Amino acid sequence: MSALTFTLKTAPAQRIDCSPLTPDALAEKSLADIAAIELQTGNTTTRVDSLFDVSGEDTNEIAFVANSDKLDFIGHSMTQGRIRVIGNAGAYVGIFMDGGEIEINGNTGIYTACEMKSGQIKVNGNTGDFVGGARPGRKNGMTGGTVIITGNSGDRTGDHMRRGMILIEGNAGDYCAARMVSGTIAVLGDTGAHLGYAMKRGTVLLTQTPSRGISANFNDCGSHTLAFLPLLFASFAKLDSKFAQVESFSRVQRYAGDLAGIGMGEILVKI
Amino acid sequence: MIINGVTIDATFAEAFPMKGTRIIITAHNAKWAMISAQAFTGFATSVIACGCEAGIERELDPSETPDGRHGVAVLIFAMGGKGLAKQVETRAGQCVLTSPTSALFSGVDGETEMALGQNLRFFGDGFQISKMIDGKRYWRIPVMDGEFLTQEKTGVVSSVGGGNFLVLAESQAQALAACEAAIEEMKKIPNVIMPFPGGVVRSGSKVGSKYKALNASTNDAFCPTLKGQTKSDLSPEVESVMEIVIDGLTKEDIDKAMRVGIQAVCDLGAENGIRRISAGNYGGKLGPFHFHLQEIMA
Fold first, then answer.
1. Span B22-64, pLDDT tens digits
2. Looking at the complex, does the CB of residue B131 fall below 8 Å from at least one CB of chain A?
3. Does A143 contact B at CB distance below 8 Å?
4. Which residue from B minimizes the CA distance to A221?
5. Which of A124, B130, B209, B258 is 20 to 30 A from A239 via CA?
6. What's the Rg (C-alpha) of chain A?
7. Per-residue pLDDT tens for A203-217?
8. ipTM score
């Protein structure tokens, strides 16, 4: 069976809510049923076949051929299957995701992996702000799963993040790990200003000293050999990511903070 | 059945269901991993008074351990899941957490899970850090030499305890040499331990006692000094009897261990003073697992 493919006909004028187009929601549906689904676009609804050319039949393997940053909520609450986007995607990719896999061959908008619970999202490009974050007013961001970003992430990556892993092969923006509750963020590149602002718990793992330095709210705990790091790197080995090639290390400089709060978070910098 | 002049009795060993788990202790080097494992498995020869039976299964190369350091695989068994959990927790807390450079991991996926480092984390007094890696939770507990890393849970496996055989020899030295040879071979079998000192027990017991407070006492039928005093099971030329007890994750594992152990004893044969191989049982009424010696050696 070939992948169920949605090819965008024209660049949309309004944002499109793609949340009904997931492997879970489309299972057992015929092509005609799928074509007739009404998607929220701006303040109205539009049939799927008015927006996309629909082909293929495997609802467990969905592809979007759509280079538009207006396709929102791709993979909303999905629990299994795979979604591939050829081109850019919009906001809230993988929101509430609880299994399966999403791969974006382009950039994503804000709130990628928002309140994600499980599964894997790989962005072969850059992401917007609030990766793995919580919706405004909510206290818990992503609670599980893995996000791989081959490019750079926007500001406030891991905001309110509770569990899971965000792996950034490029640079992270400002306020990375801000208000982070727990989990792991690893960055191969540089990080922006205010790293770990109001961070409660969790780990930020860096392979290089941040060019903007470590905030005064983090205290230097010295250099250490941490036994969990080899396990972490071993878990990276199966990933399709530069992290799989990173040579395992366990010697790090440990900074604890944000001491303006409970100060139980840590920034580990390779030494 | 006679092998190399050694009589294999037409009897069987009787064993019991137990709950078991495997844990992996790693450390800075093999020496310290072994020290920690030896402490963990200390005073764990018999459930009769130790609460559990534990032993070192084998040493592990760095390539075989979760954190890439030298390690030791340990098996521990108890009569029930609760008892096992209590023993694992107290031993891990007092013997592994305290041991320099150590880390503690689960070495088996079981039907159910129980706490490994789950409660040890409170030693961290709030500074402990949880890490979920590949779906398994680990605890990083700050200690004076750095950080103690422990997996949160380990698997509980329905196991078998009490497989055994007796070596009847013409002298104490010959019985001991035969048992040493057996243990050497049995240690190569995975999933089993021989929990007694050096793998050998010289004080095999029978059920019951003339003293009401005791539920086990010396196995007088196999005590050579009592040949003329009790209903002895020993012929005049037998002067010493030693027993090897085996606990394993499955009945098949114990089968294999008994086979190689008995074979090693028989290889020494009658010319080295080995007369008989027998086994301990309770008439087959207490334990559901029966290891018939002649079937095993057939």
1. 999 999 999 999 999 999 999 999 998 899 999 999 999 999 9
2. yes
3. no
4. B146
5. B130
6. 19
7. 999 999 999 999 999
8. 0.91
